[in-house]
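Aim 2, interim progress. The first record below pairs a target sequence with its structure tokens.
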Amino acid sequence: MDSDKSFFGHPKGLSTLFFTEMWERFSYYGMRALLLLFMLASLEDGGMALNEQTAGAIYGLYTMFVYLLALPGGWLADKFFGLRKSVFYGGCIIALGHFCMAVPSQETFFIGLLLIVLGTGLLKPNISTLVGELYSTNEQARRDSGFTLFYAGINLGAAISPIITGYLGEKVNWHYGFGVAVLGMVLGLIQFKLTEKNLGQAGLETVSTHDAQTAKSERNIRAGLWVVGAFLIILLLLLFTKTLSIDPVLIARILGYLIPISAIAYFMYVLLFQNLEPHERKKVIVIAIFFLTTGLFYSGYEQQGSSLNLFADRYTDMFIGNFEMPASWMQSIPPVAVISFSFVFAWLWVWLAKRNMNPSTPVKLSMGLLFMGLGYAVMMGASLVVIGGDKPLPTWLALTYLLHTFGEICLYPIGLSAVTKLSPKRLVGQMMGVFFISLAYGNLIAGLFAGEFDADTIAQNPSLLLDLFGVVMKVMLISGIIVLIFSKPIRKLMGDIR
């Protein structure tokens, strides 16, 4: 009924989810823009005075687990909570985590990070699934349009948050910045509960049927959650009493090897033991290539919150007249660019398709890597300014972020869509999980890479900046060229999927 369509011609429930996700992204990206800067700031400035390697490892582990825990978060929604409760409970846990970070204490800081990871893992995958439940199976075009609006909400929150949290955190007090992130998530939760009726029946039930076996399964899940909760509490107590110590750098480096090894083992298992048809086996090989491509891309893209954020803070001329902009304000550029250019690229693909010129999926993936490499070529230019004894203008970073955004628009939605179409039907969920693991891996590498930006070492040898950005540029450009060269063979492996 038309009366049910009040949000740009879409179901009312889309507005509920749009603003919930907008405020959740406000809290996440606002906090992410401050995280590394806060950990590296001196004690006199209210920071934690960690060294670059430790802070970078913590940043990488945090952003990695945000993506990794989306897998059990989706499973818990299917088997136990249901989508709607998962979104609300996840939001509550996130808000509690931000509240802990607003308290000026190192212990509560780490508890806050843990809670945000857990809450995001429960909310993030399930709110997207909930959007899909608002539409019937024969509304594919309208569903795609709805997801486009939802994606705009994500980037709107990500664009606004660094401006507010960045100013409060860097110019007033770090914990005020973390505190306003609490406000964002709480506003999202209040809005969700006040307008929840707009969702109708969407997300109320779990996938499982209600029989004796299901009831037993739910009891087992509930018991498992209590065990996990008790384990985390004991672990935190051991850490805070200094009974147990953890080396985040060592853990991050181990996971840096463990994740790709696990991915290779998984793909080998699927190819050898899942009784795939020949055409399915070829498509799984393509997904493995996409996994590698996406992981590489995001190891560069997620430098926005790590090494590139440090470059803005330490080496960039952030003054407008007598006012010095917070470095974290630069984090608003990528989401603004996404909002500005995603529709342009969507139009471009259609325009090219009408002329039989639309690049194939492998070519678009290569374009993502090439844009990423070009962005780091710009950073090499900015590094030359630093080596010359001056501070580069923010326009260098702005151009880098613009090129990176072009790369993400080419790679992320195209890769996401391709994985859903290439996956054998019985393995779609697993393959999507593997795709997000590649994002998690990219975030981890981005954090570890930031550990190389040691302020004292670079002060003695500024040309190290050129070397660091040069490595990323070479890896991205060479990888992009390789994917481009092999785009036709990869396209053949895709079969009927374009």
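The second target in this work package is listed in the same format:
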Amino acid sequence: MQLTDYVRAIAVRWAWVVAGGILGLLLLGTIASLTPVHYRSSVTLYVGATLVDGPQDPAYATLVRSEILPSVAAL
């Protein structure tokens, strides 16, 4: 067996491996392009008051739902 025969035998076998890889990539690309794209996001917002001056302050505990949260939700 000559060196060229050995190289040719390896090249023929690698050609099948490369052809199979390319076929697999094409198949996966086709499947991926046919599936719909889905996006999902979630956010958590914590609102707190560090300084409360008194019952008239909007950060007062009883006024948080009626004063603070609607304004934050509007943002």
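DSSP finds two helices and no strands in the chain. This observation will shape the mutagenesis plan for the next reporting period.
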